[in-house]
Structures are given as C-alpha cells and as structure tokens.
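EI: anyone free to look at a 217-residue chain?
SC: sure, send it
EI:
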Amino acid sequence: MIRILIADDHAMFADGIASILNNEDSMEVVGRCLDGPSVLEYLKSNPVDILLLDVNLPGMSGIEVCKEVSIKFRDTKVLAISMFNEESFVTEILNNGAMGYILKNTGRDELMKAINTVLGGKSYFSDDVTQTIMKGLMKHRTASKKKEPELPKISRREKEVLELIIKEYTTQEIADELFISLKTVESHRSNLLAKLNARNTAGLVRIALEKNLLGEE
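SC: here you go
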C-alpha cells in the first residue's frame, strides 16, 4: 500500500485529492496537513511514501518544508502541487529536493501518472510546467551568452602577423613578408598573447581558429 500525505491549506482541494486517491486499491491517504510545521511533525512518527506538497503553505513555505523533508526524511518523495506555474517557484522547489511539479488543474489520470513516476524514482512535470522550465533554460542560456566577454579589437597588422603565425612562419619570415623589423614582430606577438589571453603560440592558433578571428572584417 502506497502511503500518501497531503499538505495543503485548502480543505476542499485536499478532500478532493484524498477522495480520488482512496479509491485506488494500491493507495491510501494516511494524513492531511494544513500548514508547513505540521508536515514535519507528522513525518517524525509516521512513515510516508509520497508527500503531495503545496508550494504555498502557512507557517512555513512549501519550499522550506521540501528542503527539510529531503534532508530528514529521505524515504519520502516529494511531489509539488500548485496553482502557480512560475519559473521561480518551480526552480526553487526542485532545487530543494522535489521530484516533480504538477498544477492543481491536473486531472485524475495525470495525477496517478505523476505519483507512480515519482515513486519509481523519476521526475515528473505537467506539460505546462515543462514548457516553463524550457523557457527558463533558454532565457538563462541567452543571458549567459550576452555576458561572455567580447574579444578585444585586433588591428589589421596584428591580424596579418597572426595569419602568418598560423601558417607556421618564423619570426624572421614574418618580418621579411611584412617588411617590418624582428622587434616589431615580437611586439605584435606579445600584444596578441595579451589581448587573447593566450599562454603561447599554440594558444594563439587555437583561439584564432575557435573564434574565427581572421574571418572577421
């Protein structure tokens, strides 16, 4: 028998969920809690297989409860259930140990699927929640790309030197090809190492190819 604890401060909603679950031969709602602290108090003396946890609870948030449960009651799996489909709620409670997140407009069949999936050790999210997670990932990925430092400006002459370095020209050959002194070649090489944060000539070549520096106008 799967032992289920419902933590939700809306009595009518909790009653509806309990009615659905108690009609299942393999499931039993063993308790209901109306606030956060009572969840932890209940679990101290009552083993539970799965906790259906509302994200918003009085006395102690669902996120705080989830964190405590994941630390102190590792055998209890947490399935968050909420009316809020917001990235901040979803991310926060998942980071604190929840294995799934479904919305309160979820139907009976999806509720059963979510419970069984989580009990099987896998994560489960409502379709709308999955979309929210994906949008969040894309937003953060785009933000990360924007934060990448831009490469410093490389002069035309430095590009010419870099191109010849990639072609394995020696310092003397570069000087002869560009009609400049050895000292000037070394100066350009030093500037390139500093600008591209490279340790040696091999690093210059790698960065130039990765960033397509010679292809830029």
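EI: The chain has a mean pLDDT of 87.
SC: 👍
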